[in-house]
Structures are given as C-alpha cells and as structure tokens.
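Lab meeting, action items carried over

1. Structure of the two-component assembly. Owner: GW. Status: complete.
Input record:
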Amino acid sequence: MSEALTQLMASEHWPYVWPCYLLAVLTFAGLTVRALADLAHWKKRAQTDDRKDDAGA
Amino acid sequence: MLAWFANPERFMRLSAWALPLATTIALVLFAIGLPWALLFSPADFRQGDSVRIMFVHVPAAWWALGIYVFMGVASLMGLVWKHALADVAARAAAPIGAAYAALCLVTGSFWGATTWGTWWEWDARMTSMLVLFLTYVGYLALWAAIEDEQRAARLAGLLCLGGLINIPIVHFSVDWWNSLHQTASILRTGGSAMDPSMLRPLLVVAFAYFAGFIALLFAGMRAQVFRRRALAAAMRRARAA
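Predicted assembly:
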C-alpha cells in the first residue's frame, strides 16, 4: 500500500488528484456535521416542548 | 404504497433504524472504495494517474442529477397529492444535491486542468452542470426567503419542476453539442466501455455516495419532522397563553 502511494505521489498528476479526494472527504464530513447538529438541535427542542406541553396539561 | 410512506410517525420509526444502517453501509463502502480507487486501480493508458479523479467526480455527477430527479418527483407529489412528507424530503435532499453538484464542478475543474490544460470552459456539459448547481442554490434560497412554509413549498416545488428540463440537457449535452468533455462511457446504449478493473471501484464509490445520500436525507428529514413538532407545540402554547 505504501509503495503504491509513493508511486502515486511521484506522479505529475498527484497535485491534481489529492485535493479532489480531500474535498470529497471534507464534503461528506461537512454534510454529516451539519445534519447531526440540525437533528440534535430540533430533537432536543421537540422533546423540551413536549415536556412543557405535558407540564401545562 | 405512497400513503403508507406519507405517515410521519411511520417514517420516524422506519428511519430510526434505517439511518444508522445507511450510515454504516456508506462508511464501509467509502473505506473500501476510496483506497481501492486511489491506490489499487490501474492508471489509464492515456490519462495516467489523473483518471483517479474520475472515482470522486463521476459519482458526484450521477447523484447530483439523480437527487434532482428525486426532488422533482417529491415536489410533484407535494404539489399534486399534498403528500405529508414530500416537501420535507425535497427540502432535505436539496443541500446534499447542491454539495454533490459543487463537488462535481470542482473535481471536474481539477481534472480539466491536468487533462485539457484549462480549469474552466463555457462548454455545454460544464455550463449545464453549473446551471444545475445554481438551480439547487435558488431552490434553497427560496425556502429560506419565504416565511410561510406552505407558500415556500409550493413555489420551491414549481421551481424544482421547472428545473427538471435541465436534467436531459446535462446528460445529453455531450452528444448534442461539440464538447471538450468526453461522451458517456458507462450509462450508454451498448453497455459500459470501461474496463472492469476501473468499473468495480467506481461502482463501489458510487454506491457509497448513494448510501451517504440516504443517510443524510433521513437525518435531514428527521430534523424537519422534529422541527415541525417543536414549532407546532410552540404555536399551541402561544394560543393557550
């Protein structure tokens, strides 16, 4: 694996290849963080509101 | 069948186990597909190692188109049948599709720089893909700009349906106009022209993108359902006060 990577890094195309893979990983990481933060926020809000409704009833 | 999926409670029960499953499948496929594509697939006899950009570029293009078609179907269901989750699904899919389209444009630019010697050309394929990305951005901007959610859903749905006309243009642009971009080598009549040693890792990464989309879609839809619950509860309390 390290030999394949060393060969690839010596290639003239390497400076164009690695940013694409990094960008793909960062895109999915960014989408995941955003989705999880959004989900956690609204789930907590909905549960808090349910409790408030129960307390009010 | 559609009515069965229209029930938000049923969707929440289904997605509670489908979300971690899709996430796990996506992670496993990425862990296999990306190193396979980067290190163990052969270099192209003409393009050399630059062909490795294809493995992250092509699935992004496929699913940017596929997600838009999904949004079109969901928007139609929302407009015509008032399907309870249709607008939620279309809205949750839009940022994922926009991100895939942006990824496709940027990685395509890198591929163009090393293969054609230019980062950008106002070529039919690239321009129509840029139009697709801008349609995604417009769709999201419309949702953000209109406070009344029902009105926003209707207008965004109409915009989405109008934008569907661009999908065949993106796909067939390389056949209809002279283009720097190569013609289709996988999704074409007569079967794939790609060697299996490259096709297999490409399909693994493409399924990883798809599983990633499903996981992110379910997470986004669940967040929207919780959001609607929270807003409805807040409205109930405001009325009672």
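2. GW to write a short summary for the group page. Key points so far: Residues 50 and 56 of chain A are 10 Å apart (CA to CA). The helical segments of chain A are 2-10, 14-56.
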